[in-house]
Protein 1
Amino acid sequence: MNHQKALDKRLLDHQRELQLLELHQFKEKADLEEKTFEEIQSLKITQSCRILETQSQHVDEMHIEKDRLYEVGQKFKLSKLEIKHIKELKQMTETHRSQTRQMRIQFQQMMKQRKLKHNQPDTTSFKNETTSREGKQIKRNFISQSSSEDSLNQDHDDCRITNLDTLQEYDKEVASVIPEDSTPPPEIVALHESIRKLASRQCDDIETLQRSQKSEYDSVVLFWEDKARELEISQTIEMESMKQSHTRECAEIKVNHDREIKMAAAVHDTEMKMLLERRLLSSVLNTVVDAIITIDPI
């Protein structure tokens, strides 16, 4: 009974040691998982910041190229509008000159008709006086109209010459930039191609960075998985070693208990045999004594 109590006590000690070891191993696993989580999350944050910085740099580069394209496009539109304006002004000047020329011819014809009527004799002095006043007024109007017309013609001629000179100079200036068929100039085409190449290069840079980050992430995850696997193996070995030690210790305790039980049984058997021998000897002695007393009574 005492042996069983001692064995049970030792088994409880073993169970307590196993629980303490399990608790220690669980703490080690938790610490490793925490370190793994912190390392992976820190790597993710670093990679995300790197991607955001790269994308921000790409956006700035793209904005610069688009601003250049917008500026060149606005210059191109302005140049087209200026050419259109000069052409319209030239056409309007020609139309105005033609209209003025026709008005002059009509006025001259009207004046000739009035002169013919003025040279014919009239019957009344009132008509002569009226005709004379009208002739003088028409003459003054004609002179004023002629001077105004000459001034207007001179102004239009000067404007036409100036506009033609400006158009010729502008044609020479933009002939190398703006084609006659209004297609985009080479600079805009080059900028469009540059933006496409920049976008393609930026996509390639992002893909390259993502592949590099994925490789780095996989290597870090693999490293911590290896450490977790190594820890699990070491803990398993430690646990198995402790269990085997406990098993051997329990076996040794049982063997010792069995030996002690056998020794106690052997001692008990020896004592019983000695007690039996003593009783037998005592009985023999008592019988001998009784026989002696019976033979020789005193």
Note: The radius of gyration is 64 Å.
Protein 2
Amino acid sequence: MLSKNRAADEDVMNQPVITLWSDANFFSPYVMSVYVALAEKGLSFTLKTVDLDGGEHLKPQWQGYDLTRRVPVLELDGFALSESSAIDEYLEDRFAPPEWERIYPHDLQKRARARQIQAWLRSDLVPIRVERSTDVVFAGVKKPALSAEGVDSAQKLIETAASLLAHGNPNLFGEWCIADTDLALMLNRLILNGDEVPQMLVDYAAFQWQRASVQRYVALSAKRAG
């Protein structure tokens, strides 16, 4: 036991200095993805915020200005990186299994599929992201009915998610992965607004939302939302 404790202490001491930059309200789904990835890896990190509403991210003195001027930004021993899926993949490579917890599937094809899902959620479904912004998820705001484009986008999300989860398991690929968190958040844009979503997807999103790392991030946004 003593040797295990010593090894754990050494791991903590050998960890690099990590900073995660978030929006001030903790409403960003992309910050959430990285926050969950860091927490699941068991990494210690400092959380800092930038005021997007006040335009702080557009000022040259902000650390992320020379990247994409968006959150999240990860700083790790002098290396700065933006774009959440790139950060998630970097963390998986930099703190690789089995020494660190896995956040992507071990199987090559499943890992590629997880990355596909992440890329799709970030590049498609624009009407959902516009008409069901994350204040629905993190602050309990209710939005009006979806537009025709929003309905089409919601149907696409529902059909795709149902196909991915047709196996009936609570996670996309057997064991949890970071794509589960990202998909659950997108579904919750609809579910938490009261939009019609099949029960199997409601159950999936609720199961994913109870993960400890997710709940810690939700608590941050809830505190800001008052």
Note: The CA atoms of residues 74 and 81 lie 5 Å apart.
Protein 3
Amino acid sequence: MTVYSTENQPLIPSKKCNETSTEDTTKSSFTKILSTILLCVCAVLFCLNFRGKEPTHADSCTAVPSISWSSLHTIPHDRHHLRVGHELTDRLHITNGSVQVHLNEEISETTVRFDLKLTEESQIDLIQMKQVTQSDRIALIVDADTTAEIPLCITLDITIELPSFSALDSLSIETSNTTIDVESGMYFPHMMQLKTTDGNITVKVTSLTRNTSISSYSS
């Protein structure tokens, strides 16, 4: 007779149950940690997506500009390259405007006139007109003083009059929220560069050069 003894024999089923229980506990803990991390990430994304929109300069321009300011400049004959516009800075916000380039045979030199409208008279002292000359180049740029505590909301109209269609070798205009209109017949053999943000450009130039650059884009 064969006798089977059960004394001191390992309980195989019981051991397997213990191992399974340990693995399940480990997986459960990992799942809880992962779930907690995912919940934190979702909460952060939710806050970012639904956070209130930061105010922009356009939002702060509620008053209608009505205070007039103007500046007239004559371009000497020896300045053949003209750049006109305004500084792209947080201190100055153009709400509306236009740039007109046309012929005036009654004048002998190119002229540039800036017509601005501001919301308050006190802002007139904050307007700066920068004139930079180098060799045969001249730049006329509107800017606001660095002491301006809030952005100046203005309308900007620029009128460029030429005594002849080919009075300038190059013309560069860079503005925002502005319509740029160049009269038919204008010819700039070296370069014509027109840029506007949130504006429109109308070019009626009959003779464009290979260095002509025209761009209108949204901010």
Note: The chain has two helices and twelve strands.
Protein 4
Amino acid sequence: MDAKRERKSSLAPLSPCPIPDITDDELVTISVRDLNRTLKMRGLNREEIVRMKQRRRTLKNRGYAASCRIKRIEQKDELETKKSYEWTELEQMHEDNEQIRLDVSNWKNNSLKQLTVRVLPVHCIEVTPELTEVTQSHAVMAFRRFCKSLLYGLPLGITFLDCVGYVARVDGTSMQPALNPVAEERDYVFLLRWGLHQSAVERGDIISLISPKDPAQKIIKRVVGMQGDVVSTLGYKHEIVRVPDGHCWVEGDHTGHSLDSNTFGPIALGLMSARAVAIVWPPERWRLLKNELPRRRRPIQVAKASYYN
């Protein structure tokens, strides 16, 4: 850095101006058109005109460099001041947090002491070895009862969730107005697993199934057609589709705002996981979910009775 400054300081000064009555300040501020007119009026030769223009460019470049240098220094000073102010604020915040932590700890300790004195004075109970032994015995018995309840209850809970059903939250607006009629609110439904594959699924039922696009995601739709039915589609590659064996046709009630069979075709029956039977939350939405299918979405032709019909 010092060597660079020395090189700058060792540069030779500018040569004398060919026109003495034009100062450097005037030369920098004068426009190119006025400069050309002035040089022509003075009768300067080509070499002198070129030197004047070079002198003007040099002065402008030096002025620009000086202004940039001053601006950088001002920005640096401003950033340093801002940094110092923010560090001061940060230290003050640390001190305030530490003081609040100490106040909370002291308040907690004082409250516990006052509660102990009011509820259970020290002189009321004499802690004897017999009392200690009884207390430990009760604690051991309580722990054993808890472990026993857990061993019996955990398998029952898992069996209930796997075989009977569970409660799940419904996201999205694809089943409006039956589910989530208000976009900002979410319905919770009871999904029944019991008898799902025992001829319990019918047209018009709302079912939960594994998404054929993303196996990690579960979707909830209404059954429109069962295997063997002929259904009319909405935007599918074929206007009329015969549902293959082992499949069903599902759609969302909110037409045009649902990713369903009109997007990815018939759904394998093995992807069905549960049937939605009731809305359990919020309380004002408590109700059983009816089996209903709009007339315009009923199958064109219904297949003969089968395992799932």
Note: The radius of gyration is 43 Å.
